[in-house]
Amino acid sequence: MSFNKEINRRRTFGIISHPDAGKTTLTEKLLLFGGAIQEAGAVKSNKIKKGATSDFMEIERQRGISVATSVLAFEYNGIKINILDTPGHKDFAEDTFRTLTAVDSVIVVIDVAKGVEEQTEKLVEVCRMRNIPMIVFINKLDREGKDAFDLLDEVEQKLGLSVVPLSFPIGMGYDFKGIYNLWEKNVNLFSGDSRKNIEETIEISDLASEELNELVGEKAANTLREEIELVEGIYPTFDKDTYLNGQQQPVFFGSALNNFGVRELLDCFVDIAPKPRPKQSEERLVKPDENKFTGFVFKIHANMDPNHRDRLAFIKIVSGKFERNKPYLHVRNNKKLKFSSPNAFFAEKKEIVDVSYPGDIVGLHDTGNFKIGDTLTEGEAINYKGIPSFSPEHFRYINNADPLKSKQLYKGIDQLMDEGVAQLFTLELNGRKVIGTVGALQYEVIQYRLEHEYGAKCTYENLNVFKACWVDPEDEKNEEYKEFLRVKQRFLAKDKHDQLVFLADSAFSLQMTQQKYPSIKFHFTSEFK
Ligand code: GDP
What we know:
Residues 8-279 form the Tr-type G domain. This is Peptide chain release factor 3. It is found in: Cytoplasm. This protein is α+β, with helices and mostly antiparallel strands. Strand 25 (423-427) and strand 26 (433-437) form a beta hairpin. The protein starts with a helix and ends in a 6-residue tail after the last strand.
């Protein structure tokens, strides 16, 4: 197959949802369609069970599963589909944000009864900022839920999306009869039999036909006719380019558990979802069909075996072919590296591959060369735009609890930060180290891994910080900025890239500071330049 054909047949995407909306179940059904797995239950959920936060076995189990489900690839009708796993648990939100830099599109799963939930809001906002094309799947239609129109309103308002329903439910919960597909203009009847892989679809060329009455009953048929008329009156018609620009989001309804409405979603997805997209580097826009290989690291995973400190770096291929044993330039280190056993990922296994194409993810064994955001090329010194850090929610001092092991501790902290487990801030005043995380669970993970992988012990000490704000002065030389540096010295720190950060101790003090120093901007993310 030609190089261009290989690119054009790839679809790399992520499924985002609030925990429990049905991401794992949907993933599994998609894999079933692709023939990548034979039975339900084969995809492991990487969820952390409620109440298991202090259970280290649970953390280890979670790490194992998260390697196994990092990338799930399968083929469907000649299309190579790569699903990138995005943890739904809020403590791992950073991980998900980073993964979103490597997807070309996303599917958003929403629970019909719960509607738009907190995690979904945050993740969709990130996708919206980047104009990532999104398809919405409203799940669990076999259960009583919100009215379809109310839900569509909620999705528009809370998520700021511009929706176009491409399917519409006929009844819901106990009365759920099936789905009318506006995209294919047919009716799919619900039997509630989850063992069936392919549902029977009935072509309906005319909604006014008697046939519809026979299929779903006169009452439901009439309701559907009215609703579809409303849908066609209220919502714009679907336009592929508008979707691809991130300005319009098609919506599907279904029940992942019952494998209902999933094929419709998948068929539409392979039809409209973007092939690998060009990516902006600091120097220039890079197109997938360029001959020379480029890619970037979006995830680093520590090896499960504590005796081997090697790690797996996940690279998204942006352009060209990635080949085994060919020397590539690690741009940040200005060093050539060769990889003898790059891994490609499939539904249930990983394998060494000789060649990978744009859109694909390869896992490279790494002994500490890589940081998240690093660029690899065939020689050109380009840098893909950094992967942003967001202000953590929790902050604690980290102290060395074993003076004989301080070297191990600092090495451990360094490597765990490279992996993106948490963020490190070094106070300007006294050099003390502060760890910032999205969730409290990360502190336990860090402490546990420092001890088991690096032989170092740490303790934490509380620190009252409301938000980390990246400092962006209008002019580094003006008096106002100099005064700010002097007065707020106690609250200033450097992040891992040596960027200056203001650790505001309350919303109020942040507000006062902003008022007092109007020429300085304070950002909640490191990506503002
Ligand atoms: P995730 O946290 O988003 O990965 O959610 P899961 O896929 O693990 O699903 C959470 C729960 O919802 C599980 O108990 C599923 O069996 C259930 N579930 C998923 N899809 C459906 C559905 O279509 N209908 C019903 N009734 N339950 C579902």
